[in-house]
Amino acid sequence: MYYEIKTERLILRPFTPNDADAVHAYASDKENTEFMLYLPNDTKEETERFLEWVSGEWKKERPDSYEFAVTLAGKLIGALSVAVNDDRTEGELGWILDKHYWKKGYALEAAKAVKEFSIKELGLIQLKASCDYRNKNSYKLMQKLGLQLEKDDGIRIYPKTHEQAGELTYSLSVDRDRKYL
After folding, report:
1. Most CB contacts within 10 A, which of 73, 88, 97, 161?
2. How confident is the model at residue 176 (pLDDT cuts 50, 70, 90)?
């Protein structure tokens, strides 16, 4: 399966193994990945394994996860994903953008496009996203997407450091007419 989304400034496309250098540049940067559960990647091999996995998902008839490379004028600047639950009614959104492209509206532009893809193309009726409570940029993005705070007392444990932090969960429900509730 190949699915491309074009926005005003961006093209979102499936990742390929050829994206390893660009992905590793932001996925191994400690500042860039400060609030990411499974990052930073310590080795390029970790990044390559991730790209093999997401490329494999796109080859499935019905992927469990749609991981889009976010490109600007042909340059890969980040990722936006939606992971779908087993009954294909809910999706969890996630994103990361290279820090050199923060605060320019790219994350919101890409997230809006994947939100619409999730609702219109995948038929999802609920979207969720969660973040470390300290990640103001991420929860502000969730709010701009129309997601509402659902839970503010979650706990996340970072697997690599075992650090614990508060977690916020936001959600958006969609009715049968594809209107946001």
Report:
1. 97
2. low
